[in-house]
């Protein structure tokens, strides 16, 4: 039998040659008090690793979390909107914000878009200024994420209170406090002894004020003379303010409507007695059951929907290149309701009004009006629309000619209700009357159709019971 020869195999650790750089790197990673020359580390027994003091560039690990800055970007607004004007920052550098809290507002051609914080943190830097034009995806601010921003502020406020409380026990002796007011008592007596000086002051006062008043009067005269002009006295200052994007867009659309549509307006008047009596009789019941205040807009919207059955062209539009060469007829009615806001006129849409009752239409109009006033309208709220109703009567308008909202074909204008003498069954009676105005595109609607449509609305409003038969 062959004799077995045992050969000593070196251990893996002893066979490896670790360069000096590895020791330095290992030291920066392990940064604990573990000795590399412990019995278990025989392979590093003779290793000469550097001392910590000789490695100033090596920083030990910390247990506190490290946050990377987060950038706040312009959100996606709509397919047709790629840029806007940053109107205002609601937060400034150093302010703490919660997740989804509004940081800035961007004004576009149609709506205002809010920029919200992607996560909770503190604003570190604003990358753009108010009034700058920004695009979708552009970075507008940097923030340091992390919760508890408000807690730090509270602690900072509490810090000055601690030294005040610590001082109170040391100076809480009542005796020194009493001594201080005693020392102040003679001070109070000193001004009493100074009573004699006032008479000389009185002697000095009359002379200078008289001399001062004279130049003051002359200066006032000089200023008045400086205001004089060939047009008379008064200020002639001018303030120049750049138009916001919404106002520019409105101006562009209205001018486009004037240049494109062959606009014509027809008028009629409607007796509001019956619809006002209807509203007065049922408004409290409706408010109690549905929480909606019954108005006149829903009645005119319902009357227009029914009138489209007789004149469907009023709900159609002209579309196509070069001003349009195709007529689009619709079996649905999306009514645009004109709402005045501080930034301009907006027209949110009540969709599928043909399938709604008056209460449902009133609910939709009230909800859209509130969103418009609060600046919460979205692109979806204003997209589309096949017919527009504009109520200038709420502002006291007696009569007007509304402009068509392209590509629509017609717009109905409502006006103020005024008591006027009317002939009823051969007698003169005082009736609440309203002028109606229908502006229509004569390229699509003829005069006969336009007048018929407006007369139908008049009949439905003067006798609301006809709406049940239509």
From TrEMBL:
Any coiled-coil regions, as ranges: none
UniProt-listed GO biological process terms: L-lysine catabolic process to acetyl-CoA via saccharopine; tricarboxylic acid cycle
This protein's record includes keyword Glycoprotein: no
EC number annotated for this UniProt entry: 2.3.1.61
Xref: InterPro entries: 2-oxoA_DH_lipoyl-BS, 2-oxoacid_dehydrogenase, 2-oxoacid_DH_actylTfrase, Biotin_lipoyl, CAT-like_dom_sf, Single_hybrid_motif, SucB
Enzyme class per UniProt: transferase
Top-rank taxon: Eukaryota
Alphabetized SUPFAM superfamilies for the sequence: CoA-dependent acyltransferases, Single hybrid motif
GO cellular component: mitochondrion; oxoglutarate dehydrogenase complex
Keyword hit for Signal: no
Boundaries of every Lipoyl-binding domain copy: 69-144
Region described as Disordered: spans on this chain: 142-241
PANTHER family: DIHYDROLIPOYLLYSINE-RESIDUE SUCCINYLTRANSFERASE COMPONENT OF 2-OXOGLUTARATE DEHYDROGENASE COMPLEX, MITOCHONDRIAL (PTHR43416:SF5), DIHYDROLIPOYLLYSINE-RESIDUE SUCCINYLTRANSFERASE COMPONENT OF 2-OXOGLUTARATE DEHYDROGENASE COMPLEX, MITOCHONDRIAL-RELATED (PTHR43416)
Protein name: dihydrolipoyllysine-residue succinyltransferase
Organism for this UniProt entry: Cyphellophora europaea (strain CBS 101466) (Phialophora europaea)
